[in-house]
Amino acid sequence: MATVTHRATRRLPIIVILAAAVLAVDQATKFWAVATLTDRAPVPLLGDFLQLRLIYNSGAAFSIGSGSTWLFTIAAAVAVVVLAGFARRARSRGQAVAVGLLLGGATTHLLDRLFRAPGFARGHVVDFIDYNGWFIGNVADIALTVGAVILVLATVFVRDEEPVETRGDEPADI
User: pTM for the complete prediction?
Assistant: First the structure.
């Protein structure tokens, strides 16, 4: 029987560092947004195309499901658990980067749902980056979107980086 050398555990620090960075940057920018943008008119960055506008989102993307905040809390918790489990099995650097971004984004959204007003497990996510009125998001949303794209690309186009080593006279499992 072949012994597989798992480099996935070496990729774990990449995932943890990226997830922690997304969490820290997202929460810091939300703190800044609440302190700076509360009761303020939108601040144009690129005209109307990109603005800073503070909202508290009880729903998901595009404020879908605004009355079901507790469902999004459960979904975020499940996503964090699944991503944490997948973190130990990332088979390429691309997958590790993707999982780190996704885990960080899901964790920070979960923390918002758990600990922000109006109450435990019903908290609203702080959004402040307005994309031409199409939607308003935050740093975690950017990490989630980029992570999802990288995960698809790394899964579809990047070959596996896991080597298979054999012991002496035994055939390799393929």
Answer: 0.83
